[in-house]
Design a protein that fits this description.
Blueprint (H helix, E strand, L loop, with lengths): L2 H15 L6 H11 L3 H13 L5 E6 L3 E6 L6 E4 L2 E4 L20 H19 L14 H8 L5 E5 L14 E2 L12 E4 L2 E2 L2 E2 L9 H18 L12 E6 L5 H14 L5 E5 H9 L3 E7 L4 E7 L2 E2 L5 E3 L3 H14 L12 H14 L10 E7 L5 E9 L2 H4 L35 H22 L7 H23 L4 H5 L4 H10 L4 H9 E5 L8 H10 L12 E4 L9 H10 L11 H7 L2 H6 L5
Parallel strand pairs: 1-10, 10-11, 12-18, 18-19
Antiparallel strand pairs: 1-2, 2-3, 4-6, 4-7, 5-17, 8-9, 12-13, 13-14, 13-15, 16-17
Helix pairs in contact: 8-18, 9-10, 12-13
Function: Plays an important role in the functional organization of mitotic chromosomes. Exhibits low basal ATPase activity, and unable to polymerize.
Protein name: Actin-related protein 8
Pfam family, one: Actin
Length: about 600
């Protein structure tokens, strides 16, 4: 456990102990409500001090994968975060795709995409290798000619088997979903999409249905992978890693899922960007999470994600995979039967992308790419193909987001949404804002009345009072609803998103600290050479007055898989002594409810 991580946890304890002025009314109410369960809290602290890491379960759900394990595990179990249920007789059919589906491009958009790729090829052609020599580029025609004579090598009959309805009692979970028999018409659901709950109008798209799917998936993993009987979960505690941009209603339901439905003996929530800094052992960093369907950026300091700096963009590894397939098709990809919407082909394209795509300018010319197409019950087909600069062009879409029009154009940046009212939380943001306005207004009226006798200062007092009232209201509005409009109107590339996030930091000194340390996490950060490419792009754009002595871009800290950094950070944080203040018990949750999150959550509620 690093000293930086310990320092972060102490900051959390201090920030929770010294509650902001606007939340004091809520905390006093909670203190009164909590008095009845103080004995339970004391018992919980005693139990927590003797609790080993084997009794802590860390859950990190994602749009594509679920990572779950004990805090004592070296690495978590990673499975496809999906569930397939047999379709009811004459019922509707719903299938969430493994990859984000492509859209039919208009003529204008197709021209834009092709022109962007052509411009990117020109950029690669003008680049130099690390030894200073010119980098030879490859053309589409050159790759297509090399693959023209490529024929697959037929192998033995595949031993893979499809999962049929007769073999399933109620559901299929994890990677087995890829092998659900298409003729049996399973409903396939991914509970998370684009980093949030997958709520939609189709079958299984209601909030209650999504929560039921999560309960089934997580419960199955706990029993079968962690080998913890469900009846024993009351002796275990859970840490749920949540997105940095969250929906308060969803968080409330997820806490109820952990404590009430699954039956854990305690839980707390932790934002993924904060968890990533713990995993990397950093006190402050601009965290960039490159996921399968979203890219998120925020600035984290002293274990707090700065709300105004949070940006989420709806593109990620899945969009890169579809772009890669588009480029392969144009270069004479010999596996012409490939259908990205098919689960097995989608998984195959993802493996090829992860195994071969890169951003290393020293790798040039045609490269051999080998893969095997395997279908249950038929002969395997082994391909040996040639691929050129397509291996770089696909991940370069992160810096040229116009090409992601292939998967739709609604990928603009999003910030933290304003809090909606909750009937269970009377002291929510709306209440605090309105009561603060009234209090300031009354104070200003009293001040004006007392100064009315001073004829010489009457006009100046009224004018000053009006200005102060406007300032107070604006300040409160800014507190409750930061200016997220620029984020919602623009489609940022990766480097632009980082620059915009850091620009929204509250002080110049914080901006310098964030520019000096950028942490890349998530499965999309595994491309070789990504950190160097990003570093060169940022150096050209960082404002002169904020340039640090050195800009460090960290990928895979401590030789860790970037996709597991947040999970590992949550495991570290859950073991700290200071984290005992954050746990929420079932009895407390049942009695006090969502108001506990305002007091216990290690982030601004």
């Amino acid at each position: 456990m690093s000293s930086n991580a310990t320092g972060n946890m102490r900051s959390i304890s201090q920030s929770n102990a010294s509650v902001p002025e606007q939340n004091k009314g809520t905390v006093e109410t909670l203190a009164q409500s909590s008095h009845a369960v103080s004995d339970t809290q004391d018992e919980f602290k005693v139990m927590g001090s003797a609790l080993t890491t084997k009794k802590l379960v860390i859950i990190h759900p994602g749009s594509k994968h679920l990572r779950i394990g004990r805090a004592s595990d070296v690495n978590p179990h990673t499975i496809l975060h999906a569930i397939a249920r047999p379709r009811r007789k004459n019922g509707p059919l719903h299938r969430d795709p493994v990859l984000i589906p492509t859209v039919v491009l208009s003529k204008e958009n197709k021209v834009l995409v092709d022109e962007t790729y052509q411009s990117m090829r020109g950029t690669l052609q003008s680049c130099l290798r690390s030894d200073g020599t010119p980098r030879p580029a490859t053309s589409v025609q050159q790759v297509a000619t090399s693959n023209k004579q490529c024929t697959p090598i037929q192998g033995s009959i595949s031993k893979l088997q499809l999962v049929t309805k007769s073999e399933v009692e109620d559901y299929i979970i994890g990677d087995q979903v890829l092998y659900a028999h298409p003729m049996d018409q399973f409903n396939v659901h991914f509970p998370f999409r684009h980093g949030d709950l997958n709520i939609h109008s189709g079958v299984g798209g209601s909030l209650s249905s999504v929560l039921a799917d999560l309960e089934t998936i997580w419960g199955h993993c706990i029993v079968n992978l962690l080998e913890i009987p469900k009846s024993e979960l009351k002796h275990y505690r859970a840490v749920l890693v949540i997105p940095d941009i969250y929906n308060r209603l969803f968080l409330k339901e997820l806490v109820s899922l952990l404590l009430t439905h699954l039956g854990f003996g305690g839980c707390f929530l932790l934002q993924d960007h904060v968890a990533a800094t713990f995993g990397a052992g950093l006190g402050a960093a601009c965290v960039v999470d490159l996921g399968d369907q979203k890219t998120s950026v925020s600035c984290v300091e002293d274990a707090l994600s700065q709300r105004a700096t949070r940006i989420r963009l709806d593109y990620g590894g899945s969009d890169i995979t579809q772009s890669f397939h588009y480029l392969l098709q144009r270069a004479g990809f010999p596996y012409k039967e490939c259908q990205p919407q098919h689960p097995l082909d989608g998984a195959l394209l993802t493996r090829i992308k992860e195994g071969y795509c890169h951003l290393n300018l020293d790798f040039c010319g045609l490269r051999d790419v080998n893969f095997v197409v395997e279908r249950p019950g038929v002969s395997t087909l082994r391909y040996h193909v040639k691929v050129g600069d397509e291996l770089l062009l696909a991940p370069l879409g992160l810096f040229n987001t116009e090409v992601f029009a292939l998967t739709g154009q609604d990928k603009r940046g999003q910030g933290q949404a304003n809090a909606s009212g909750d009937p269970e939380d009377p002291h929510d943001a709306n209440y605090l804002r309105e009561t603060s306005r009234r209090a300031h207004k009354e104070a200003l009226e009293n001040q004006s009345a007392s100064a009315a006798s001073m004829d010489t200062a009457e006009n100046s007092t009224n004018t000053g009072g009006q200005g102060e009232e406007d300032l107070v209201v604006d300040s409160l509005a800014a507190d409750a609803a930061p200016d997220d409009q620029p984020q919602q109107q623009l489609l940022y590339s990766l480097d632009q998103a980082i620059l915009h996030s850091i620009e929204r930091c509250s002080s110049d000194e914080m901006k310098r600290r964030m520019y000096s340390c950028i942490l890349l996490v998530g499965g999309g950060a595994k491309f070789e050479g990504l950190s160097t490419w990003l570093h060169n792009r940022l150096l050209l754009q960082i404002p002169f007055q904020f340039r640090p002595e050195q800009t460090e871009i960290i990928v895979g800290p401590k030789e860790m898989d970037p996709s597991m950094v947040a999970w590992k950070g949550a495991a570290i944080m859950s073991c700290l002594e200071s984290a005992q203040e954050l746990w929420i018990r079932p009895a407390e949750w049942k009695k006090i409810g969502v108001r506990l999150l305002r007091e216990r959550a290690p982030f601004y509620w």
